[in-house]
Amino acid sequence: MALAHNLGFPHIGGDRELRARHWQVQKDAGIELLPVGDFAQHDYALNTGEQPFALNWEPLFEEVEQANALGHAVKPVVVGPLTYLWQAQARNADFDKLDLLDRLLPLYDHVLNRLAALGVEWVQIDEPVLAHELPQDWKNAFERVYNILQRAPLKKLIATYAGGLDGNLGLAANLPVDGLHIDLVQAPEQYQAILDRLPAYKVLSLGLVDGRDAAPCNLDNALGLLQEAHERLGERLWLAPACSLAYSPVEVAVQKCQEVAALAASLEQYRVAA
Q1: CATH number, position 79
Q2: What angle is formed at CA 190 by the lines to CA 185 and CA 196, rounded to 5 degrees?
Q3: Which of 77, 176, 93, 184 is nearest to 127 (CA)?
Q4: How far apart are the C-alpha atoms of 136 and 140, rounded to whole Å?
Q5: Beta partners for residue 158, in sequence order
Q6: How far apart are CA 81 and CA 85, in angstroms?
């Protein structure tokens, strides 16, 4: 059966009881792997000297511990290092942000190993910058970064959204990680190409439910598209909203979770009937 997961849910700060209710709401909607820590963790301002990065990971670890105590299967969400640098505002316009990678990567390595020590099996690393046209040095940096981060003993899902991979499709498909999420709402044309180019060991997460539109998803159309992926991928097929639901009203976010779960259940019925 395709696994139903979620990329992000409306965040409510430090209210532990409300946070727990939000997790339970997603679980009741049919989401099997819950996003945890799906909130902005970084100050996107860069200094060009030796000042430390403004990365506050403690709330993420606290949420993982709380969710574990409640018995939830969770998938922590972190902003990918290259998306972090791409989006950050450098105070010196002449500064090459890629020069900071060697200082940034040990922090990510530490975080991933800490999550693994907390019993995390999967982590979601958001790299929406892969939907941009990237200079060659940034493409090269992706390969180097994930060859380093693959050493952490947990599985990594790269999440892309807000557009198609286009010229970065081969790069994204072949990064040394365990899974890839793609946005098929804004870029349905990449579906066949990613099916053909994804390595045989990887999970493919398909975003067919529009997280930005409160209108119901056309489940019949989505199901028709998913059948080939299900036949080719089997348990390596995951389903999710196309993008994070972090900025949606809670009612809409719940509806989108239900639609993802309905797609997964319909695929299972199709498999059994076949």
Answers
A1: 3.20.20.210
A2: 135
A3: 77
A4: 6
A5: 125, 180
A6: 6
The type of residue at 141 is A
The structural domain count of the chain equals 1
pTM for the structure as a whole: 0.93
Per-residue confidence (pLDDT) for residue 216, from 0 to 100: 83
Domain of 195? 3-273
SS3 state at 35? strand
Q: Pairing state of beta strands 74-79 and 122-126?
A: parallel
Element (H, E) at 173: helix 169-174
Going by DSSP bridges, is the β-strand pair 237-241/45-46 parallel, antiparallel, or unpaired?
A: unpaired
Q: What angle do CA 93, 98, 101 make, to 5 degrees?
A: 130
Nearest to 148 by CA among 117, 103, 194: 103
Rounded CA separation 176/170 (Å): 12
Per-residue pLDDT tens digits for 218-258: 888 888 888 889 989 999 999 999 999 998 999 999 999 99
Tokens standing for residue 109: 């390595």
Question: Does 93 have pLDDT greater than 70?
Answer: no
Alpha carbon distance 190, 204 (integer Å): 13
Alpha carbon of 210 to those of 161, 215, 263: distances in Å? 11, 9, 13
Please tell me whether residue 234 adopts helix, strand or coil conformation.
helix
DSSP reduced 3-state for 3: strand
Residue 42 pLDDT exceeds 50: no
- Mean of the per-residue pLDDT values for the chain? 89
Beta carbons of 122 and 75 less than 8 angstroms apart: yes
